[in-house]
Amino acid sequence: MTAEELLSSIDQPAPPDGLDVPLRGLWHAARGEWDEAHVLVQDDPSPDAAWVHAHLHRVEGDLSNAGYWYGRAGRRMPSESIEQERATIAEALLAEADGV
After folding, report:
1. Element at 82 (helix H, strand E)
2. Which helix (H) or strand (E) holds 50?
């Protein structure tokens, strides 16, 4: 699956099968389902979930909290648009899932 395929699937009633927690959270974020996305990633201790968690707080405008989660993810807050960051995260997580 590509990032474009993932993000274009948001009109479906459920995320594609086989997505891990961070990717499911990102899918819900792309649908504007902030609470659903947050519930998924907030208790996942992985750096990938922390990255999506950071993105969610950036989306809501809570940059201080976002900064904390970017730190937990080992990343810096990006200057790119929310949409571009979402695509960047999707590409990275899908490549990781494919072992690339």
Report:
1. helix 82-97
2. helix 47-60
Among the listed residues 26, 9, 3, the one whose alpha carbon sits nearest the alpha carbon of residue 98? 3
Nearest to residue 58, comparing CAs of 34, 42, 94?
34
Rounded to whole angstroms, the Cα distance separating 25 from 5 reads 16
Look up the pTM and report it: 0.92
- The DSSP letter of residue 11 is G
Write out the two tokens for 97.
Answer: 């899932």
The answer to whether the beta carbons of residues 59 and 43 sit under 8 Å apart is no
* Assigned token pair, 39: 């519930």
Residue with tokens 């490549």: 95
* pLDDT tens-digit map of 58-76: 999 999 999 999 999 999 9
Which residue ranges of the chain lie beneath pLDDT 50?
Answer: none
Distance CA 46, CA 60 (A): 21
